[in-house]
Specification:
Length: 340
């Protein structure tokens, strides 16, 4: 049954530095997360200090290309506003807060915001459509640390990789990208569905992320009528560990050898940030051109696409109504966004 009081909704994302000076502490927070580096605390702290100091100059150059800061907080804030308006239109009195994992606004700040707003119940909504222990689980765990004294009923939405609205939003943006480029014959197009990579050791421990990414792509391909040349690939590798593949870079080179037009779709990111605006739009575009790719098209992230915001609204109201749907491998007590 949907609550009669004010509802708090928390949108979770990784976050990003808001100025160049914040790059190193942002990276330290990232690598000091036990979900990222599983070493004992003293060793992890030292490794995080070393890695963040070493990578900071490289990362600062990336953020300089974005004007000196990540756009992720602004993007997520826009999504929060759009979701608030949608929920209000459905008669739900909601306050939507943003909680970033590795830079401001942190979960502690979102807790304070919801306390001031006087909410009576909370829905936790990660902006990671596919569940991973390194993203969703880390954010939710950090929320429970920060919200230990909030003492309010809460509902956790762990994932929504095949939610119809999520799939429809992708389909619309892909078709618009092709239409704007004047591409109607899809026989020459290779669709690269690019997700953020994950170390192989995390997947071997049972992380469902690649299975959920593959499920997202299957649903989109089916929604587009099937019969397209579609490949799931992974980007943003760092460090010496073996990561899941195939790598997006290698798939771009293969598409070049095959003389294909590439339509690249960021499938695990719902907001524009450094890994889309720099890695995809600049670095991979240059690689595509150097590899002989016929044309390189990039679909935008979902951002505030109406079908996506409507899907988030459905997830919130389903969670409040305790309508539990067909489960993926989700945490105990989570409300999964999968539908049949």
């Amino acid at each position: 049954m949907i609550s009669q009081g004010k509802i708090g909704v928390v949108l979770f994302n990784l976050g990003g530095p808001d100025r160049l000076e914040a790059v190193e502490p942002f990276l330290f927070n990232l690598f000091n997360d036990p979900a990222i580096i599983g070493a004992p605390t003293p060793i992890r702290y030292l490794l995080a200090k070393f890695i963040s100091r070493r990578r900071a100059p490289i990362a600062q150059e990336i953020y300089r290309q974005l004007g000196g800061a990540s756009p992720l907080v602004a993007e997520t804030t826009a999504q929060a506003r759009a979701l608030t308006m949608l929920l209000e239109s459905r008669g739900v009195d909601a306050h939507v807060a943003v909680a970033m994992r590795y830079w401001h606004p942190f979960a502690d700040e979102a807790v304070s915001e919801l306390r001031r707003a006087g909410v009576k119940e909370v829905v936790l909504l990660p902006l990671y459509p596919q569940f991973s222990t390194s993203t969703t689980a880390s954010s939710i765990r950090d929320w429970h640390r920060a919200a230990a004294g909030l003492n309010l009923p809460s509902h956790t939405i762990c994932c929504y990789p095949t939610h119809p609205g999520f799939i429809a939003a992708h389909k619309t943006l892909i078709e618009k990208t092709l239409g704007d480029a004047g591409v109607s014959d899809l026989s020459h197009v290779r669709f690269l569905f690019s997700a953020h990579g994950l170390p192989e050791r995390i997947v071997k421990r049972g992380d469902p992320y690649p299975a959920q990414v593959a499920a997202t792509v299957r649903e989109i391909v089916q929604a587009m009528g099937g019969g397209i040349d579609a490949v799931v690939c992974y980007q943003s590798r760092v460090g010496p560990l073996k990561w899941i593949g195939p790598a997006t870079e290698e798939e771009l080179r293969r598409a070049g050898r095959d003389g294909k037009t590439v339509a690249l779709i960021p499938i695990s990111f719902v907001s524009e940030h450094s890994e889309t605006l720099v890695e995809l739009d600049i670095e991979y575009r240059h690689l595509a051109e150097a590899s002989g790719v016929d044309r390189y098209l990039r679909a935008p992230t979902l951002s505030v696409a109406p079908a996506f915001i409507a899907a988030l609204g459905d997830l919130v109201t389903d969670a409040l109504g305790d309508r539990r749907q067909d489960h993926w491998r989700c945490p105990e007590g989570a409300v999964c966004g999968r539908t049949r």
